[in-house]
């Protein structure tokens, strides 16, 4: 019976991957770039003042963690601030961070830990606000009922510089285990549900809605919600380049203010609408995913950032993370 369940799961997940790939490459009429922008350098100067105001190029991956960026775009499009967000979609964190670190985009909704790593290496970036709070789950196959059951098994994360890696290590530590007790691999989010369905991995932790996909399709279940391991965990954030901030101080302040307003606007029905419009994913999957996440308070407090820096050092993710003053944008 389990064999047939896995076969059906692989087929369904494969169809979903094809569908999602089509959605991500097709554009949706909502201002989202119709193709990935991994190497779009066109010689333009970011933060340009056009005829209708300042255009801000913001990169993102098509995940629920980026909803405040989409909501803010709509707020700005309907307002009178003279700022237009030009969304640029990427298929991988490495492509997105490369564009951010080289200044081909002005900012991004990106894993905070990746931005911290870039700053540790001398890249001039500032995190302006959180992308969300909580909103991650550890999903495992039906054969796994405890952390101890993962011993000797393969577990996937999207990147070593991620809150997903931290949550994995938190879970293992709680059970008296370490990453050495399992095999940790890096996979793209799109690959994870199908890899779980096929038995190639025993579990994963990744940005939503990819955890919800496995749960809704019936070949995985939630072992831990992020808040059970790390309450109010920091994951994604709105990160801006230092060059953009220096050139556009007033625009930056307005951009951050509207972004936080956008987060507060993302209550249940609005979040569903924005997710459906910009992500083009299954409605039931999005409903499940949005139960695990909140956007109402996107401030980065000194205390929360200290917890993050303690964790990245403890787990060997970043031995020299930037200080709060060096990394978190301050409205002077």
What does this structure look like?
It is a single chain. The chain is an alpha/beta fold and 332 residues long. It folds into 2 domains: 2-18 and 135-229, Periplasmic binding protein-like II (D-Maltodextrin-Binding Protein, domain 2, 3-Layer(aba) Sandwich), CATH 3.40.190; 29-134 and 234-327, D-Maltodextrin-Binding Protein, domain 2 (3-Layer(aba) Sandwich), CATH 3.40.190.10. The chain is built from 14 helices and 13 strands. It has helices at residues 2-26, 67-77, 93-101, 112-120, 163-174, 191-198, 210-217, 226-229, 242-247, 249-265, 268-279, 283-290, 302-314, 324-327, and strands spanning 49-50, 53-60, 83-89, 107-111, 125-130, 133-134, 137-140, 154-157, 183-186, 203-206, 221-225, 236-241, 293-294. The strands form 3 sheets. Strands 1, 2, 3, 4, 5 and 12 form a 6-stranded mixed sheet that branches. A hairpin with a 2-residue loop joins strand 1 (49-50) and strand 2. The radius of gyration is 19 Å and the shape is globular. The protein starts with a helix and ends in a 5-residue tail after the last helix. Mean pLDDT is 87; it is low at 1-8 and 10-45.
């Amino acid at each position: 019976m389990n064999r047939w369940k896995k076969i059906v799961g692989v087929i369904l997940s494969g169809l979903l991957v094809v569908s999602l790939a089509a959605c991500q490459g097709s554009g949706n009429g909502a201002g989202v770039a119709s193709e990935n922008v991994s190497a779009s350098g066109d010689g333009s100067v970011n933060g340009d003042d056009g005829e209708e105001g300042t255009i801000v190029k913001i990169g993102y991956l098509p995940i629920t963690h980026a909803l405040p960026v989409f909501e803010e775009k709509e707020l700005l499009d309907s307002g009178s601030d003279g700022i237009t967000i030009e969304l640029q979609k990427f298929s991988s964190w490495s492509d997105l961070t490369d564009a951010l670190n080289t200044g081909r985009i002005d900012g991004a909704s990106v894993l905070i830990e990746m931005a911290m790593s870039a700053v540790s290496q001398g890249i001039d970036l500032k995190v302006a606000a959180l992308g969300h709070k909580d909103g991650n789950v550890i999903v495992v196959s039906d054969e796994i009922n405890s952390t101890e059951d993962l011993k000797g098994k393969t577990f996937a994360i999207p990147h070593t510089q991620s809150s997903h890696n931290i949550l994995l290590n938190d879970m293992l530590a709680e059970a008296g285990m370490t990453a050495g007790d399992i095999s940790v691999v890096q996979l793209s989010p799109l690959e994870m549900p199908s890899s779980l369905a096929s038995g190639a991995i025993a579990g994963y932790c990744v940005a939503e809605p990819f955890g919800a996909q496995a749960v809704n399709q019936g070949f995985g279940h939630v072992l831990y919600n992020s808040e059970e391991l790390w309450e109010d965990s920091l994951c994604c954030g709105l990160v801006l380049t230092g060059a953009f901030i220096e050139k556009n101080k007033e625009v930056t302040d307005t951009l951050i203010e509207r972004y936080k307003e956008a987060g507060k606007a993302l209550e249940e029905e609005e979040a569903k609408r924005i997710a459906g419009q910009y992500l083009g994913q299954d409605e039931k999957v999005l409903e499940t995913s949005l139960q695990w996440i909140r956007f109402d308070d996107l401030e980065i407090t000194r205390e929360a950032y200290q917890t993050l820096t303690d964790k990245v050092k403890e787990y060997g993710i970043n031995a020299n993370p930037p200080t709060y003053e060096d990394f978190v944008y301050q409205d002077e």
